[in-house]
Amino acid sequence: MTTTTGRRVHPDLAHHHPRVTRLPHGGWTWGCDCGGASARSVVARLTWHQAYVGALIHSASIAP
Ligand SMILES: [Zn+2]
What we know:
This protein has 64 residues and is of the alpha+beta class. It has a domain at 19-60. It has one helix at 48-60; strands spanning 19-22, 28-31. Strands 1-2 form a two-stranded antiparallel ribbon. The longest helix is centred in the C-terminal third of the chain and has 13 residues, at 48-60. The protein is globular, with a radius of gyration of 15 Å. The protein binds zinc ion (ZN). Zinc ion binds next to loops.
């Protein structure tokens, strides 16, 4: 049996700076310079916290 490392650590391979913005219709979204953003086809509006968490998850991910 082999052991695979589930965690990939790539320090400073990519920097993400997602920003949480408020939509004119209400609700919040986040977007990043790399093109990442919260799902466009979201029917339910995100709360600020949901958008913030989404941005945090994105900022923790590494761009391909
Ligand atoms: Zn990004």
